[in-house]
Design brief:
The structure holds two protein chains of two kinds. Chain A is mainly alpha-helical. Chain A contains twelve helices and two strands, in the order αββααααααααααα. Chain A has a single domain, classed as MetI-like (MetI-like fold, Orthogonal Bundle), CATH 1.10.3720.10. Chain A has a two-stranded antiparallel sheet. Chain A is globular, with a radius of gyration of 24 Å. Chain A starts with 27 loop residues before the first helix and ends in a 6-residue tail after the last helix. Chain B is mainly alpha-helical. Chain B is globular, with a radius of gyration of 23 Å. The chains are: A mainly alpha, B mainly alpha. The interface between A and B is large, with 98 and 105 residues.
């Protein structure tokens, strides 16, 4: 399962394959690539360009659309829906920070401390991920319900008051609130954070931590100076795999939120499929993609692991 | 106090594991519920009704069948195409490697709404009516990249000397590939296929953009149900899926453990 987290771009050429005698050019790689790449070009590159063109067209479903380079669509769309963009970034960002916070101890425990339970625990992490996303999200309705154990526990420990003060609840209920949406996003993307972190931490040589201890570093210092920097590739990979899908998600905000938690994905979905304002919907999709690319680029640069993306 | 300190990581880790598993436990428990209203969110009383009659609500088993069919076809096609691409990248030097890698990476970095809506604009522009075929095209697309990176990681971890050894023992390139390379890469291909199936089976957002009222997949059925009331049968199917996944992943682990022992 280390696959989706591995570095995608420009990895070194395969080792040990330089054969000295090669008179004619080798067409094998191109033949192998052809069907897969053709699929990606026809159904990914072309539609993305078609989306870009759609966002600059005017017209409607009945009369058809013509390309008029109508940039006004972008300005209108942004001025109408900027709160949804801001909310999506906020929800996805909070969920990413929380998944990192939750996933780290579990990934560390599985990678370094679990011994012969390692495989069993990994199965438990992966298995829920193979069960329907929607059904599991609906289960949060039951968990966070008003008179359920979680709600009464939160109330008795004044956690509800804290969340209410942070403006994350829906009056005094946990369900259909910002809290529920962030909780659902965090839950749904947790495996995407655990697996890359696990992959990094498993490679961590435990003797390095022992060495830091031998040199009188306190456990916290050891963590910040040794463990954390060595796990950075996993942290970066995991945060990207969480943030990107979370920013475009609308299942959690639709099933666990209310009308004031609508995320941009839901707006795009309804502009396309219900209102059928294709130009606005395409413009919004494009802006979302642009925002994500910019955030990811800045983040990856700051994190200093540029070889990752 | 010392004990708590020493086991802090373990306790935090297990608490997180609990957070991860609680919804699945809720799904299982509520598959035995008999709710009063349309929504299965409140525990009422124990009943086996949904288990004895899993197709009891109209449309549910049809949608499950469609999702399984789409899942199998999308998995097969994306695994074949993805494995070919992975071999090209992992085993050959050629011009345009980094462009290829970028093209593989981009679909994984694209939010689902964007991918779904751009495919829809293409289908509209080309006048293709949405339905099972458009869903399949979309599923193969988003599974492809995940298969490529999974298989590629496996190929990268192989020792190239094994193939050279086969060549030294007078195996021709085809024999070396079939008898040495392919068996070694097989676990990666299996993992990629499993991932592809779960991605396809579970997708709602992209599917919803490219489906028609006559092609309702299981996630679309669940989504629709969530607006009107959730039949208990959804939980039954969810439970079966969870157990099947648990069994499959556990078997896979067992096989790879046994292999590791044989090698060691």
């Amino acid at each position: 399962m280390t696959g989706p987290m591995s570095a995608p771009v420009d990895d070194p050429a395969p080792p040990g394959l330089s054969r000295p005698r090669r008179a004619r050019p080798n067409y094998t790689p191109y033949l192998l690539l052809l069907p897969g790449m053709a699929w990606l070009v026809v159904f990914f590159v072309v539609p993305t360009l078609s989306l870009a063109s759609q966002s600059l067209q005017t017209g409607n479903v009945e009369t058809g659309y013509t390309l008029t380079w109508h940039f006004q669509t972008y300005l209108d769309a942004l001025s109408r829906f900027w709160p949804h963009f801001a909310r999506s970034i906020f929800f996805a960002g909070s969920a990413t920070v929380l998944t990192l916070f939750f996933a780290y101890p579990l990934a560390y425990f599985i990678a370094q401390k679990s011994g012969r339970w390692k495989n069993f625990l990994l199965v438990l992490v992966i298995a829920p991920f193979f069960t329907s996303f929607l059904i599991r999200t609906l289960a949060w309705q039951t968990i966070l319900t008003d008179n359920g154990p979680v709600s009464s526990f939160a109330r008795s420990t004044h956690l509800t008051d804290l969340l209410q003060w942070l403006n994350l609840t829906n009056n005094d209920s946990l369900m259909n609130s910002r809290f529920a949406v962030i909780c659902g996003l965090t839950y749904n993307f947790l495996p995407f954070m655990i697996l890359p972190l696990y992959a990094s931490l498993e490679r961590l040589d435990h003797s390095l931590i022992e060495a830091a201890g031998d040199l009188y570093a306190a456990p916290i210092k050891t963590f910040w100076r040794v463990t954390w920097p060595l796990s950075l590739p996993g942290v970066v990979g995991g945060t990207l795999l969480t943030f990107i899908p979370a920013a475009g998600d609308f299942i959690n905000s639709r099933l666990l939120g209310n009308t004031r938690t609508v995320m941009i994905g839901q707006v795009i979905d309804s502009e396309f499929l219900r209102i059928q304002d294709y130009a606005t919907a395409a413009a919004l999709s494009f802006v979302l993609m642009l925002i994500i690319v910019v955030i990811v680029a800045v983040y990856v640069r700051r994190a200093g692991t540029e070889e990752l993306v | 106090m010392r004990w708590i300190r020493a086991h802090l990581v373990a306790m935090a880790g297990l608490a997180v594991l609990g957070y991860l598993l609680i919804p699945n436990i809720v799904v299982i428990v509520f598959s035995f519920n008999k709710p009063n209203g349309n929504y299965n969110y409140q525990w009422t009383r124990f009943s086996l009704d949904a288990w004895t009659n899993p197709c009891g609500t109209p449309g549910i088993c049809e949608s499950l069948g469609l999702s399984l069919r789409i899942g199998f076809i999308a998995t097969f096609v994306s695994t074949v195409l993805g494995t070919m691409v992975a071999f090209a990248i992992g085993r050959h030097r050629f011009r345009g490697r980094s462009t290829t890698n970028l093209l593989i990476f981009l679909p994984m970095a694209t939010p689902e709404v964007v991918m779904g809506s751009s495919l829809l604009t293409l289908f509209i522009a080309m006048g293709i009516a949405p339905g099972t075929v458009t869903i399949l095209i979309a599923h193969i697309l988003f599974c492809l990249s995940f298969v490529v990176v999974t298989v590629k990681a496996r190929i990268a971890s192989l020792d190239p000397r094994l193939e050279q050894a086969a060549a030294d023992l007078f195996a021709n390139p085809f024999q070396a590939f079939v008898r040495v390379t392919l068996p070694l890469v097989a676990p990666g291909i299996a993992a990629g296929a499993l991932l592809a199936f779960s991605l396809s089976f579970d997708d709602y957002i992209i599917t919803n953009f490219n489906a028609s009222p006559s092609s309702v997949t299981f996630p679309m059925y669940v989504w629709g149900a969530a607006q009107r009331g959730t039949p208990v049968q959804i939980n039954v199917i969810g439970t079966v899926m969870f157990l099947a996944a648990l069994l499959l992943v556990a078997t896979g682990q067992l096989i790879s453990n046994r292999r590791a022992k044989v090698v060691a």
